[in-house]
What we know:
The protein is α+β, with helices and mostly antiparallel strands. Helix content is about 35%, strand content about 20%. It has 19 helices and 32 strands. The strands form seven sheets. Strands 18, 19, 20, 21, 24, 27, 28, 29, 30, 31 and 32 form an eleven-stranded antiparallel sheet that branches. Strands 1, 2, 3, 4, 8, 13 and 14 form a seven-stranded parallel sheet that branches. Strand 22 and strand 23 (about 630) form a beta hairpin. The protein binds ligand ME8. The site of ligand ME8 has 22 residues, from strand 2, helix 1, helix 7 and strand 13.
Amino acid sequence: MQKPQGTFYITTPIYYVNDTPHIGHAYTSILADVLTRFHKLAGDETFFLTGTDEHGQKVQQAADKRGVTPKEHCDAYSVRFREAWTQLNVGFDKFIRTTDPEHIRYVQDMLTIMWDKGLIYEKEYEGWYSVGEERFFTEKELVDGKDPVSGRPVEKIREKNYFFKMSSYQDWLIQYIEDHPDFILPEFRRNEVMGFLRQPLNDLCISRPKSRLAWGITLPFDADYVAYVWVDALFNYRSAVAGQEFPGGKSVWPADFHLLGKDILTTHAVYWPTLLKAVDAPMPRHLLAHGWWLFDNARMSKTTGNVVNPLAMKDIYGVDAFRYFLIREMVLGQDASFSEAALVQRLNSDLANDVGNGLSRILKLAATGLGSRLTPITAQGPGGPNIFAATGDAPLIGDDEIHLHRTAEATVSSALEKVRQLKLSFAVEDVLQLIRAVNRYLEIKAPWKLAKEGEAGKARLNAVLYHAAEALRIGFTLLHPVMPAKMEEALAALGIGSARDSSLNWGAWAAEGPLSSGISLFPRVETAAKTGDKTGGDGTVSPSGQSPGNKGVTSAPKADPFSLVHLKVAQVESVADHPNADALYVLELRIGEETRTVCAGLKKHLAKDELQGRKVVMVYNLKPANLRGVESRGMILAAQDAAGKLWPADPGDAQSGADVTAEGIAPQPKMDLTLKEFEKAPLRVKSGTVWYREHQLRTSQGVVLAKAEDAAEVR
Ligand code: ME8
């Protein structure tokens, strides 16, 4: 959303063909794809470049190891990346290979320009060379005589090489970064680069003698040398689009975004701008450095052997659930942990419960009550809201409908704004909130009753389902960039031919086709296999041995019953009467950035305004339960005082979303905890605070209070 109705050119790093694609690579490519699709949604012309980095020592070594020529190796491995992206629905416009003849010629042209301008000189150089990092280090940079990056041994080498006068651009670069505060994102990465630039900048060695490394692009001014692989690689972003224009005539270069992992920030933030300056090219607009996917707290990489194969994840959980998880789980800029259990949790709660259920409820009700046909309801339209005016009945569009309509519109602007700020995980959460609001709306309206109330009931049923469907349609359209295949299916079920025809405006739905009579968009997955146990000999993770649905994955020693319980602090956002149960309230709880609907039997004990805004403690991982037609996701902890009045346990100053733990018990929360399992860890009051046996419950801010006498049960 950088330049609405404009153009958008985005790149990923080109990946080394010494590795097979793992989820780190998949993440950058999927992120680029999602951003591209959001820009398409906003009407921009887009161009998305990815590819493979095929020269240099690492690739030569990988080929040697397999006993094939470097080119044969590259041909075999490049295709793995290309095919992985196709399978993960990553819609790139061009896949560049640095062995493409056009790229080789382009790099030689750029080096000729620099040579002719006197920006490259030759020098006899002696230094410590690291094969792993493919670069020289100065004596001072070594740590314990070893390569400071990889810790591997270095060799002393003396040779003639070519150098680019990078140092002469130091002041210019500092000024440029200061003048363009959003050139390097996020901000703390810019500060890192500025810190680096406070040291004197060296000239850059841009050559390797063929006697040592022959696999590269021959220097146009000395046939005994090849170009340093990073100089070759960085120019891909321009060679791929040389002379190319968007429809309308605007040049594709400069790039709007170069996406990269934080491991390659210096090459992109220092080498690349100075090389561009040297050839008088315009600068890219933004470099966006994201964090690492960690597995068992270590960076996922071939060297550490802890890689997760994205295609195996796709095969087990489906491409869209996998894409959703990556985008939802990583806050841009920060590291994130990958685990299959977390993926399953997201799939079951966000996708199966919220997204999938919302849709299938509407379809089922429309099928039974309305023959799968919905008539759009507009304020003015025929059969509009006032057909009940004469009878004095409530109009078809009341406060709830207006509220849903407004929520949908607010979600469109907030989610798109967050995409613009690159806060994709938060944008996605906004849309999920809208979908949860639709589910709540359906619960409150209880449309299953309307189907039984004759013609007038039918008109009302139509109005309710139309509002719910229209809000969902907007939600699905917003989620389409993240889950293109599933959202296409979901929109088709609502009678919409293609996401391209679905605008973000309320009321845009013409409801032409009939609705589908039922669809299971995201079936629940019962268990997650333990990824770490599935690492094959080649360092990749094979598809889980367990097919989803198998029970009993772990064989860990018997855990304390409380360790399975996940308690969290939540804040009550709203309180409503349960439509079908006199003793229950339907509460909307905010837990950090998430909201959930929970039913609580507090109606006899507390007035709505006593609960509104209150902080409570909830059982966060309780299996969702349908309580008389309302799905309740969690349970509030409360204890009875001497007068028989129930009071929710009070977490004091803790923030909503904070964990509540029992002192001395390491949490190992179990997904979908049953009530029986929860009851195996009885909680009781002691001196006005809550305890599990001899373990006191606490948050990082303090203890949990309870208004009840000693030994009172808390549940
Ligand atoms: O560096 N978490 O290629 P590369 C998140 N050829 N992202 C990860 C990751 C992880 N654990 N591991 C890798 C190169 N990545 C050069 C780039 S560009 C002109 C040349 C992603 O195959 C991330 O985007 O080592 C990182 O920058 C990229 O893969 C590195 O891929």
